[in-house]
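Run log // design_07
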């Protein structure tokens, strides 16, 4: 009896399939066998308008295959559909839904129609989905929006996402390009929101290089806020030995401006270091170095105001001839103070090398000397026409003291240690009674100078006389 019912059932199915075949396929042959229906022509299965057509809708653990043996032709699902939904997989399914998983070179298109606007959702549910794109391939390419000329591409959450977004995080040598197209002008924003973002660029690498705007030939590079920023901008703040170069290119002329704004800026350079060096323009062979305002500056410029023992050198090295000007311009009434502090200081001006000249000039106000005038220099030689004269060890070509001996003589000669350019004007005076007695004689004492000597001439005398002299060259 079961075989009869089974045969009747197959017959009814066959009848239904024959009735469902369109008129154009009336001559096709249908073969119905156990668990199989074979059609020699094109097979169309349709339901009534508005009806639901079910296929393998009962609960089963078997496989449902559509076109698994087809090697050519098309498999279309919902090709003429204008509304409704097309579902593949779903429910509480825990298996795998595979599209285009064959081994051949395939093109898998999702939402690629060129007319109607498509909304393509992948993993848009609220569950903690794991979405992988191209994670198993080791070559090829992954592109997103390459043909777009408008619209928006968003990666990462726009809400309260707290996870990590990684771009180019592989261990291989990669090139990560952001906004690197060569034609259209790009506006690339990184952490452009108003929150107190923490933006780190290459802050964990210990080698390599970090370049910004390296190929630019125009435009502007701005670091730090242009508004009311009150934080700190640090360049080269590491603990290692670093070289921080600003405007260090060797070809194009650079204009390097530091704190060029009009605010009352506070600019410090090397003010925390206790050793090392600060150099400015050490290799310059031309140009100008200016310190201090060129306009109506009324503040104070301090050089070397520290409390330690310091050496301040101005034009003190090198072989080139220096012209050092101090307060040579400006308004009438400059006040120039040198070592005027209330401390015991030693102030030296000029040197004794070669033809060194030191000029102290004054107008109608004159030259004021406060304190004792002390001359220093080489000691000249003293002789007398007979016997031996002695000159004090502190004597110089400018002033000194000569003492004769008891040998009768008529002249005392002082030979300058350094010849004058022109014969100086010298005055002399008696330093004791014997010298005064010679001055008081009828012939007196006469002094004559040349560029190399001062000669005192008097009557013959064996007295031990002391003479003081002062010489000044007249230009």
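design_07 sequence
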């Amino acid at each position: 009896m079961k075989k009869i019912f089974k045969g009747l059932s197959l017959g009814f199915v066959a009848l239904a399939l024959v009735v469902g075949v369109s008129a154009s396929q009336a001559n096709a042959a249908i073969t119905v066998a156990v668990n199989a229906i074979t059609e020699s022509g094109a097979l169309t299965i349709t339901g009534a308008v508005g009806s639901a057509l079910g296929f393998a809708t009962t609960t089963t653990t078997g496989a449902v295959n559509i076109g698994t043996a087809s090697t050519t032709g098309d498999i279309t699902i919902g090709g003429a559909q204008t509304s409704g939904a097309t579902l593949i997989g779903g429910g509480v399914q825990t298996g795998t839904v595979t599209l285009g998983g064959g081994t051949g070179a395939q093109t898998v298109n999702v939402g690629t129609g060129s007319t109607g606007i498509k909304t393509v959702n992948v993993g848009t549910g609220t569950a903690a989905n794991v979405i992988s794109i191209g994670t198993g391939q080791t070559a090829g390419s992954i592109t997103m929006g390459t043909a777009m000329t408008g619209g928006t591409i968003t990666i990462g959450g726009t809400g309260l996402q707290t996870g990590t977004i990684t771009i180019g995080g592989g261990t291989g040598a990669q090139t990560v390009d952001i906004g690197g197209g060569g034609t259209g002008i790009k506006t690339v924003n990184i952490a452009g929101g108003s929150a107190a973002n923490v933006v780190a660029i290459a802050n964990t690498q210990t080698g390599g290089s970090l370049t910004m705007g390296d190929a630019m030939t125009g435009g502007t590079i701005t670091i730090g806020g242009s508004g009311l920023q009150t934080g700190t901008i640090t360049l080269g703040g590491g603990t290692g030995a670093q070289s921080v170069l600003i405007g260090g290119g060797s070809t194009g002329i650079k204009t390097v401006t530091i704190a060029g704004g009009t605010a009352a800026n506070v600019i410090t350079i090397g003010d925390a270091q206790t050793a090392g060096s600060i150099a400015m323009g050490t290799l310059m062979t031309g140009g100008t170095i200016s310190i201090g305002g060129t306009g109506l500056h009324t503040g104070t410029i301090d050089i070397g105001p520290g409390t330690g023992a310091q050496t301040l050198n101005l034009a003190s090295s090198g072989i080139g001839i220096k012209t050092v000007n101090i307060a040579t311009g400006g308004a009438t009434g400059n006040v120039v103070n040198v070592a005027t502090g209330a401390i015991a200081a030693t102030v030296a001006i000029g040197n004794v090398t070669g033809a060194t000249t030191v000029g102290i000039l004054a107008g109608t106000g004159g030259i004021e000397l406060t304190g004792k005038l002390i001359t220093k220099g080489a000691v000249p030689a003293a002789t007398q026409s007979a016997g031996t004269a002695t000159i004090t060890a502190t004597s110089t070509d400018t002033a000194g003291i000569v003492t004769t001996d008891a040998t009768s003589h008529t002249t005392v000669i002082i030979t300058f240690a350094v010849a004058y350019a022109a014969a100086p004007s010298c005055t002399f005076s008696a330093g004791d009674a014997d010298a005064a007695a010679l001055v008081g004689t009828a012939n007196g004492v006469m002094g004559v100078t040349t560029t190399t000597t001062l000669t005192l001439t008097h009557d013959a005398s064996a007295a031990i006389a002391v003479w003081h002299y002062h010489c000044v060259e007249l230009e």
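The longest strand covers residues 453-461.
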